[in-house]
Design a protein that fits this description.
Shape: globular
Order of helices and strands: EHEHEEEEEHEHEHEEE
Low-confidence stretches: none
Number of helices: 5
Largest sheet: 9 strands, antiparallel
Strand order of the largest sheet: 2-3-4-5-1-8-9-11-10
Helix content: 10-25%
Distance between the termini: 26 Å
Structural class: alpha+beta
Radius of gyration: 16 Å
Mean pLDDT: 93
Strand content: 25-35%
Length: about 210
C-alpha cells in the first residue's frame, strides 16, 4: 500500500443536520471529483447508499471500537480527479468529544510530493483548485493538507487560539481565523466565500 497525501475538510457536529452527506456529495461533484464506486467494504454500494450509511453513523456519533469489525465503520468512496491514479474519500469521527468530524481525500503521495518541503506544482495546482471549490460548502470549517507521517490536522478551536493549521503544502481557513493568526511565515491568497489559502513560505513547487 503506498503512502498517501491527504486533503482534509473539517466540520462541526454543531451543524449536523439530516442531509450533510448529500450536501457534501453535491460539492464533491462541483469540485470535479467523479464517483467511481464504493471502496473498502463498500464495493457495490451506490453513492446514495454510502451517503445514507454515513449520515446515520454521524447522527449516532459512531466511532469504531478497537475490537469491532471494520465493516461497521463509515463507508469509503473511490473517486476520480485530475488524472491521479487513485483518489479515495472517507469520513472520520475520531474526536467526537471535541465536536468535529472530517472528510478526507487521499491521493498517492508520490504523485504530489517530492520531499517534505518540495511538491509537484502541477499536482498541487489541481488539488488547490479542487479545495477552493470544496471550500464553498458552507459548513466547511477548515481545509488542511498533510503527509502520511504527519501528526494530523489542527482543530479549528486550536487555530482560533493561535495554533498553525496543517499545511503540507497549504491550508484554507476563514478570513476571521486568518485575522487571529500569526501569518508572518505564510503567503496568503484570498479566495471567494471568505477563504484564505495559506502556503508556508519555505514550501517549494517545482
Amino acid at each position: 500500500m503506498p503512502a498517501y497525501f491527504s486533503v482534509i475538510m473539517e466540520f462541526s457536529r454543531a451543524e449536523l443536520d439530516f442531509d450533510n452527506m448529500k450536501e457534501l456529495n453535491a460539492y464533491i461533484k462541483h469540485a470535479g471529483l467523479e464517483f467511481k464506486g464504493g471502496a473498502w467494504h463498500a464495493e457495490g454500494m451506490s453513492l446514495e447508499e454510502i451517503a445514507d450509511w454515513n449520515q446515520k453513523k454521524l447522527e449516532e456519533d459512531f466511532v469504531l471500537g478497537y475490537d469491532e469489525n471494520c465493516e461497521n465503520d463509515y463507508k469509503q468512496m473511490d473517486l476520480s480527479y485530475g488524472g491521479f491514479s487513485e483518489v479515495r474519500g472517507f469520513i472520520m469521527n475520531e474526536e467526537p468529544v471535541r465536536g468535529e468530524y472530517t472528510f478526507s481525500i487521499l491521493i498517492p503521495e508520490e504523485e504530489v510530493v517530492i520531499d517534505a518541503k518540495t511538491y509537484k506544482k502541477e499536482a498541487v495546482d489541481k488539488i488547490k483548485a479542487m479545495a477552493s471549490k470544496l471550500w464553498i460548502l458552507p459548513k466547511t470549517r477548515t481545509i488542511q493538507t498533510q503527509l502520511e507521517l504527519s501528526e494530523g490536522i489542527v482543530n479549528e478551536m486550536d487555530i482560533k487560539e493561535g495554533a498553525a493549521p496543517a499545511a503540507c503544502p497549504f491550508a484554507i481557513v476563514s478570513e476571521k481565523q486568518f485575522g487571529r493568526m500569526d501569518t508572518a511565515n505564510y503567503t496568503a491568497e484570498h479566495i471567494e466565500y471568505g477563504g484564505v489559502i495559506l502556503t508556508p513560505k519555505d514550501i517549494k513547487l517545482v
